[in-house]
Amino acid sequence: MFKIKNVPNFASNTKKWFDILNDVKIKKEYKIYSGILLFTGCRCSEGLSVRREDFSINGNPIVRLPVLKKRVSTFRIVPIPYILYDLAMNSNFEKFNFTRRTAYRVIKRIFNCNPHALRHSFALSFLEMTKNIAKTQQVLGHSSINTTANYLLYKNVEIYDDIIKMQKIFLEEALR
């Protein structure tokens, strides 16, 4: 399993992404790519394989992500913010013309982490919000719930806090 020591905060990454939108030194395709990784939680290679035609179904701001880990050609549909959709549609973007190595450098420069850390950041925020590991599994495209459960390893402190809360509740009820 790929271990990430410090999972970046989704909210602070979102702010960093908005900060680079007006930066003329950063190419539009880098802004689009980093937005796809940030807002969909996709794998680096899945993000690189996105094309312009994958951005809309019936005018809705979504991105159709190819699931590259499976042997059969499948896709998953993930909604994206209108600002990312507009950025992609109002540019001459057709497909990403850079390597995984360049992708890694771009993400490192913008977010100061590797691309997979953005996936973990997205997954943990989604899991925190929904409290539903099955939904998180579906959004990330994991074939096994055990893979998704690995993301919980980074939430140990909060899990311990929840256990303590639960224990206090049961102890208080038992002492009544």
Set out the fold topology.
Elements: H1 10-20, H2 28-40, H3 44-48, E1 56-57, E2 60-67, E3 74-79, H4 82-89, H5 100-111, H6 115-130, H7 133-140, H8 145-149, H9 156-175
Antiparallel strand pairs: 1-2, 2-3
Helix pairs in contact: 1-2, 2-6, 6-7
Can you give a write-up of this model?
By secondary structure, the protein is mainly alpha-helical. It is 56% helix and 9% strand. It has 9 helices and 3 strands, in the order H-H-H-E-E-E-H-H-H-H-H-H. It has helices at 10-20, 28-40, 44-48, 82-89, 100-111, 115-130, 133-140, 145-149, 156-175, and strands at 56-57, 60-67, 74-79. The chain has a 3-stranded antiparallel β-sheet with strand order 1-2-3, with helices on one face. Helix 1 packs antiparallel against helix 2 (28-40), helix 2 (28-40) runs parallel beside helix 6 and helix 6 (115-130) runs antiparallel to helix 7. The radius of gyration is 18 Å and the shape is elongated.
Give a short overview.
It is built from nine helices and three strands; from the N terminus they run αααβββαααααα.
Number of helices: 9
Percent in strands = 5-15%
Helix share bin: 55-70%
CATH third-level topology? hpI Integrase, Chain A
Report the top-level CATH class: Mainly Alpha
User: What is the annotated CATH architecture?
Assistant: Orthogonal Bundle
Helix and strand succession?
HHHEEEHHHHHH
Report the end-to-end length measured between terminal Cα atoms. Answer: 46 Å
**How many structural domains?**
1
Strand order of the largest sheet: 1-2-3
Largest sheet: 3 strands, antiparallel
- The Cα radius of gyration reads 18 Å
- Mean residue pLDDT: 84
